[in-house]
Design a protein that fits this description.
It contains 13 helices and 14 strands. With 373 residues, it is an alpha/beta fold. Helix 2 (46-56) links the parallel strand 2 and strand 3.
Length: 373
């Protein structure tokens, strides 16, 4: 029996999502041959740590991060803090021999991420990064469909991806005021939100060979490096092109994605996708193929395909925070089996390198044709 004593550093909104996912797995005895316990939580605001502990059954609240990291009984640490402190806590946890789940973005710079990778390799701990869209059943279904129907669909021509979210500040659904502070968040919608989308683009379509990007600062909340608009155009190493538009806005409660994919003989449309949705996670998934009637793919079919592919056991509260649950399930299974966690830090680094290229190009206005008045 693998025993996992789990500690959390950070007790904000995302920590509640991870704790809820873990709790559902623990209460449902979902991970065979594994005994997992929510053991201890620390936050700079002790009252937040106490709330997390009370709501999700953590055994203790730590007064200092060292009380958690240096606890010999703990062997797993979740890092759920603002981005600025990810590297610090990661290096401390790795040095203490803890396995680590760390939220995205990994750090402010690729140099810092390479430090984290070096620490993981030196200590031999396992580490997974919170790029949760990989664990959403509909994106697994799309990846499987693209591989299976490659011959029928023909070559990929292009994709369009729109990802928009209410400003994740105090009073929004994503109530995290630190995201308006570049000292804690570093940057805006492309970095804090659409790192998920850039990772997914690589996951679905392969490596990017060329990109050009533009960032904007339109609303009063933007500024000091916190962009609220970003548009990125891609050329893919395997052929085809694509476009990502990322937005922060003030539309109350809205957090949606739309993906259109065009092939020589087919088109796929995913509309109204909402990560962390409950009974309804998307409005539409349509597949159109030359010579065939357009087909609507139900969420039930998507979910069943995913359950079978990952060998999912029966789940307690089956509609509850599904992608976060599957992410936690993958992490715990990797720790149980002693195999590499996915996605690991190296995958996170690749997404960060794309973001760095966008920001660098936008600053220099490279590949932008200025129209003269």
């Amino acid at each position: 029996m693998k025993k996992l004593q789990i500690g959390f550093i950070g007790a904000g909104l995302i920590a509640h999502g991870h704790a809820l996912a873990l709790r559902a797995l623990i209460e449902g005895n979902t991970v065979s041959d594994t005994q997992a316990v929510l053991a201890k939580v620390y936050d700079t605001d002790r009252s937040k740590a106490q709330i997390l502990a009370e709501q999700h059954g953590f055994a203790a609240v730590a007064d200092r991060p060292a009380d958690l990291i240096d606890d010999p009984a703990l062997n797993v640490v979740y890092i759920c803090t603002p981005t600025a402190s990810h590297k610090k806590y990661f290096l401390q946890a790795a040095a203490a021999g803890k396995h680590i789940f760390v939220e995205k973005p990994l750090a402010f710079t690729t140099a810092e991420i390479r430090e984290m990778i070096a620490a993981r390799r030196k200590t031999g701990v396992q580490a997974q990064v919170g790029l949760v869209l990989r664990f959403e059943p509909v994106f697994y279904y799309l990846k499987m469909l693209l591989a299976r129907e490659r011959g029928n669909f023909g070559p990929l021509l292009s994709f369009y991806f729109r990802s928009d979210q209410e400003w994740p500040l105090a009073g929004s659904f994503h109530d995290s005021s630190w995201r308006g502070n570049p000292g804690e968040a570093f940057a805006g919608c492309l970095f804090e939100h659409s790192i998920h989308d850039l990772d997914l683009i690589r996951h679905l379509f392969g490596e990017v060979s060329v990109l050009a990007g533009y960032t904007g600062y339109r609303s009063p909340q933007a500024g000091q490096g916190i962009e609220d608009t970003a548009t990125v155009s891609f050329a893919l190493a395997g052929g085809g092109t694509g476009n990502l538009t990322s937005l922060y806005h003030r539309i109350k409660g809205r957090d949606l994605r739309r993906l259109e994919i065009f092939f020589e003989r087919a088109a796929i449309t995913l509309d109204g996708f909402k990560v962390g949705g409950f009974d309804c996670r998307y409005r539409e998934l349509t597949v159109e193929v030359t010579g065939q009637k357009a087909r609507q793919i139900s969420q039930a079919e998507v979910d069943e395909t995913y359950y079978q592919s990952i060998g999912s056991p029966p789940l307690l509260y089956p509609t509850l925070v599904s992608a976060y649950r599957y992410q936690a399930l993958s992490f715990l299974r990797s720790l149980r089996d002693g195999r590499a966690t996915k996605p690991g830090l190296e995958e996170g680094l690749k997404a960060h390198r794309l973001i760095d290229a966008v920001y660098a190009g936008a600053r220099r206005e490279e590949a932008l044709l200025k129209i003269q008045a």
